[in-house]
Write a structure and sequence with these properties.
The chain has 9 helices and 21 strands. It is of the alpha+beta class. It has a single domain, classed as Penicillin V Acylase, Chain A (4-Layer Sandwich). The strands form 4 sheets. A 9-stranded antiparallel sheet has the order 13-12-11-8-7-6-3-18-20. A hairpin with a 2-residue loop joins strand 12 and strand 13. Helix 8 packs antiparallel against helix 9.
């Protein structure tokens, strides 16, 4: 880190960043599909605007949380490299997978309420995703971190579905200021949409095949999407046909919201590959984690998610630059402004664009 003071002084410039992350409710659907030893994590990102980048994130990079309120930011050194999907800026992913096979994705949850300030170090909700990918190899490690760090109060309301390469999965929500976890036998269905997990299960129980009499109907509504995903996850005939990846994309297509689903991702934790398509480029593209150099002495790589191409996409990645990140930040906030969602100052946008270049390859976290 070139100077920790710049991180803390940035609070005055970035105070409006509390509302910059995904302004307005997003939809989104996630699930874990199991077929024997195969583990496929499906994710639809539903939002009013498309675009963004697939980005690599290097290991052994010293980082600190960029906060608007707290003077006690989380500080860490990235242990694992990762591939993430970013629409706001580098270091602020919506989700991704690391080289240990951990996947973290977020969905909007209006009911979310984060802890009030306490002795724990704080972090924003999207940097929380990057932190987990940087530091954890298992769901257990993610959950254990709640004793050390907290998401800053006032952050945008979201919840998370986290899966590791061992097949462990957890729905993580922050309700009334506390982490609420559904995992193991408490996770009846390995899926999450935009209602709390408990609310989703209660709704599912009203339907045929799950104890009730209602027929499952596929609509854009969160609870209907949850029920549809749960039903399709239980369709063993589709899986037995040996087309498990196709079935994962079929589920995503079924609960997609037309052009409002701006990208769909299937993470294959066993084969350590990521397959994705977008509303602009509907061809499935694939990247394998072992094709990237995640050492911090190597540059990060990026690919526009709407870029042309199909199949193996690794060769299409280009070297990350501040200029590219600046264009991403400015383009995103210009569209936010046009939609009358929010307006971030040019000074704050420039700081956010340059923030990743302040993170140094090193062996000691900034103090």
């Amino acid at each position: 880190m070139k100077t920790t003071n710049t991180i803390l002084l940035a609070a005055a410039l970035i105070s409006s960043l509390l509302c910059f992350v995904s302004p307005g409710p997003r939809a989104c659907s996630t699930f874990l599909l199991r077929d024997g030893k195969e583990l496929l994590y499906g994710r639809n990102f539903d939002f009013f605007m498309h675009g963004g980048y697939v980005m690599t994130n290097q290991r052994n990079v010293a980082k600190a949380a960029l906060l608007a309120r707290s003077q006690n930011p989380v500080r860490w050194i990235s242990k694992y490299g990762s591939v993430t999907f970013n629409q706001v800026s580098k270091e602020y992913p919506y989700g991704g997978m690391n080289e240990a096979g951990l996947v973290v994705e977020n969905m909007w949850l209006a009911a979310a309420k984060y802890p009030e300030p306490d002795e724990r170090a704080a972090i924003s909700e999207l940097q929380w995703i990057q932190y987990q990918l940087d530091n954890c190899s298992s769901v257990e490690e993610v959950l254990a971190g709640d004793g050390r760090i907290r998401i800053e109060s006032g952050s945008q309301p979201i919840h998370f579905l986290v899966v590791d390469r061992g097949g462990n999965v957890a729905a993580i929500e922050f309700l009334d200021g506390k982490m609420v976890v559904h995992a193991g036998s408490d996770l009846v269905v390995s899926a999450l949409t935009n209602d709390t997990y408990d609310e989703s299960l209660r709704y599912l129980a009203l339907h045929e095949g799950f104890g009730g009499k209602k027929k499952i109907v596929s609509t854009y509504e969160s609870l209907d999407r949850f029920a549809t995903v749960a039903s399709m996850l239980g369709d063993r005939r589709a899986v037995r046909r040996g087309k498990v990846v196709r079935h994962a994309f079929d589920i995503l297509d079924t609960v997609a919201q037309g052009d409002g689903t701006v990208w769909s991702v299937v993470y294959d934790m066993g084969k350590m590959r990521i397959m994705f398509k977008s509303v602009v480029n509907k061809n499935v593209r694939t990247v394998r984690m072992n094709k990237f150099d995640f050492d911090c002495t190597a540059p990060s790589r990026v690919l526009a998610i709407d870029a042309a191409g199909k199949g193996n996409a690794v060769a299409s990645f280009e070297e990350y630059t501040t200029e590219l990140n600046r264009a991403l930040v400015k383009g995103t906030f210009a569209r936010y402004r046009e939609a009358k969602l929010m307006d971030l100052s040019e000074t704050a946008q420039e700081y956010l664009a340059r923030f990743p270049e302040m993170l140094e390859c090193g062996t000691a976290a900034p103090k």
